[in-house]
Amino acid sequence: MDLLHTQLSKIQRQLAFVAVDPIDWKLYVQSFSWAVTLFESYLLIRQYPLYSKKEPPASLKEHFGPGVFEKSQSYGKDKAKFALVSGIYKQILDSIMLQYGFYAWSWTTGGKLLAQFGYGPDHEIIQSIAFVFILFTLSAIPTLPLQIYSTFVLEEKHGFNKTTPGLFVADLLKGWGIAFVVGAPFLAAFLSIFQWAGDRFVPWLMALMISFQLLMVIIYPTIIQPLFNKLSPLRQGELRVRIEALAGKLKFPLKHLYEIDGSKRSSHSNAYFFGLPWAKHIVIFDTLIQQSKPEEVEAVLAHELGHWYYLHPTKLMAISQFHIFTILALFPAFLHAPPLLRAFDFPKPIAAQPPTIVAFLLFQMILTPLEAVVSICMNAISRNFEWQADRFAVELQDQLEDEKMADMGDRLGRALITLHVKNLSTVWVDWLYSAYHHSHPTLTERLKALEGFQAARNKKLT
Ligand SMILES: [Zn+2]
Question: What is the Å distance from ligand 1's center to 393 Cα?
C-alpha cells in the first residue's frame, strides 16, 4: 500500500502546478468540448450522404422487402438530422452554463437553501447532495423537449414508438427518483471516504466503486428493472428447450430464463444475460421472439454465450476499473487547487477550501479530451469481442461435437439480418463515423466475417 502511495505522490508532484498556476481552465474546457461537438458534427456530415443511396449493399439486397430499404434510409436520415441539432443544442446549453458560472451559482444556492433548514456550510456532504440535485435537475429540464421529440415525433413517425405520454412521465419520474435514492447515499459514501482517508483515498475509493458495481449487478435486475419492465419466465416450448440444452452443454450457470416486454415502449429488439458468476439470467425481448424463428434466436444466444465463454464482461469490468484508477490517481492534484475553482467563477472563500464534489466535477470536465480517446478505444475493444463471439457461434459445432449446430453461422446471420431490417438499422456506414460511435461491427462486416469464419473452419478440416 505504501508503494502505491509513493507512486501516487510522484504523480501529484508532477501536477503540482495545478494548485498554484492561474490557468484559464474555463477557456480550455470550452475549447475542448466545442472541438468534440464539432468533430461529432463533422462525422454526421460525412455519414449523411450515405442515407441518399438508392440500393442496399449487394449482399443484403434480397433481404429487404419492397420499400423497406427506403424506410431504413429515411429513418437514418431523420436520426442523423436530430443528432446534429441536439448535439449542437446541448453544447450551446453547456457552454452558456459554463460561461456564466452556473456551477458556482448551484453551490451557493444549495448552501442558501440548506441554511433555511439550519444546516451551515460545515455540512459539506448535505450541501454536496443539494448541489448535485440542483445541477442535475436544472440541466435536465432544457433537454426534455429533445427526449419528447425523439420519442413522440421521430420514433413515432417511423413506427417504433409504443410509449404513451403517461408512461413517458412515469418513466421520467421513476428514473429521477432512482437516481436520487441510489445516487445520494453513494455520493455520501464517496465524500465520507475523502473526509476519513484524506489524500490516501485512492484504494478505498476503488473498493467503494467495485462494491457499488457488484451491488448494482444484484439490485438492478431484482429491484430497478422490474419498475420499468415485466420479466416473465420464458414459456415452455421449442425455444426454451433449445436454450436450456445449449446452456447445459456449455455449463453456463443458467438460473432464470426470461422474456421481457420490450414491446411496451418500442419495437426495437434484443437479448442479453447478466448476473453473478454462479447464477446467470438470460433475458430475451418479446420482439426478438416474435420476429425470428427459435433456431435463429438460439444462434443469437450462442453469440451471447460466446461473450460469457471468453469472459468479456469481466474483461470490460477490469478495463473500467483501470480507467477509474487512472482518473483517481490524477485527481489529488486537482483536489486542493483554488485557481481551478476561481477559473469557474467560485467566490474566493469557497475556492480557498474547495469542496470535494466541486473539484471532482470540474476535474471531470477537464478530462473531456481524454474521455473521448478512451471511448474510441473501448469501442475498438468491444468490436473485437463481437467478432470473437460470432466466431464462437460458428465453431460451436466442433466444441460441442454436435452436427445440428453446423449451420449456426447461417442462423446467426439470418437473425442479424432480421434484427437489422426490422429495426431499420443503417446499412451504409462511414468508416470514421463507425470507428467513433459503434461498439458493434456493421452488419455487412459481420456477415462477411461469419462467412470467413466458416471458410476458415472448413479449410482446417480438409
Ligand atoms: Zn455481442
Answer: 11
